[in-house]
Amino acid sequence: FRHLNTLMLDSRLTATDLQSIGALFDRQWDPVGPVQFDTRISKVANGIDIKAYLTADKLVVDADLIADLTASPPHVSGNITAKQFFLPDIMPKKPGKLKHKIETSPVFTSTPMDFSYLKMADLDLSVNVGSSDVVRSHLESAKFKITLKSGDLSVSPAQLVYPRGKLDFDLELATSNKPRFHFKAYGENIYPRQTLDMQAINAKTGLSAAIDVNLELTATGASQHEMVSSLDGDLYITIINGEIRRSLMNMLFVDLIG
């Protein structure tokens, strides 16, 4: 093309499965496939139109985005939808048994946190997970509205739906001046194992039965230690016909911050 207004680029990536793609990034992803990733990039009046379509076995992800690269910082907006979604294991797996080590350093550091990466681009995205892979994930569906403006992040409204219960939450992280964190959540008939374990690996939470939860927390600070030590808010949890391990109850009286 001679002029940017005539820009149009089509591409296609195919692979046997996600495992072969994960190997490129030194990650052990599930062998789900075959994989096909189609993109079309074209110039429109208000920026660059990006359409992407990913399939991996039953997984389908469809993105329709507009990127304004002339803005400072660049601005990306649009919609992302997914079906039969699941979270791959993004953390590297280490062989052998885990060894417990005595930590001599503080859990939360006093080093100022770097939020400069949040100022690289502004975002205005709607994410809709219409269905989830019930074999690889406990999540049934999800909806998010993600806004990132001048380094300030907002995820609101947001909803996670499970086969038994749902969780609505709002999250805000303001990084201008002194960083401030705000989190609000409300859920009914929530099962901690299926809520905390998004990858359906049956992790032990120490809490059985369903719970109702209503919480609102705020924190301010330039470092992890300042942020956690300033944590304030309300937390209400109702356990419905269940039990909780004494070790978890004892943690309520432990100084984790220092």
Using DSSP, what is the number of strands? Answer: 12
Count of discrete alpha- or pi-helical segments spanning 4 or more residues: 4
**Rg, nearest Å:** 21 Å
Span of the ends, CA to CA:
61 Å
Strand order of the largest sheet: 1-2-3-4-5-6-7-8-9-10-11-12
- The best one-word shape is globular
Biggest β-sheet description: 12 strands, mixed
Please give the share of residues in helix.
under 10%
Order of helices and strands: EHEEEEEEEEEHEHEH
Low-confidence stretches: 196-206
Secondary structure category: mainly beta
Strand content: 35-45%
Summed over residues and divided by their number, the pLDDT gives a mean of: 80
What order do the helices and strands come in, and which of them pair?
Blueprint: E1 8-15, H1 18-24, E2 35-44, E3 47-56, E4 59-68, E5 75-83, E6 122-129, E7 141-149, E8 152-161, E9 166-174, E10 180-190, H2 192-196, E11 210-220, H3 224-229, E12 232-240, H4 246-250
Parallel strand pairs: 5-6
Antiparallel strand pairs: 1-2, 2-3, 3-4, 4-5, 6-7, 7-8, 8-9, 9-10, 10-11, 11-12
Can you summarize this structure?
By secondary structure, the protein is mainly beta. The protein is 9% helix and 44% strand.
Task: Walk me through what this model shows.
- With 258 residues, the protein is mainly beta.
- The protein has helices at residues 18-24, 192-196, 224-229, 246-250; strands at 8-15, 35-44, 47-56, 59-68, 75-83, 122-129, 141-149, 152-161, 166-174, 180-190, 210-220, 232-240.
- It has a 12-stranded mixed sheet.
- The model is unreliable at 196-206 (pLDDT under 50).
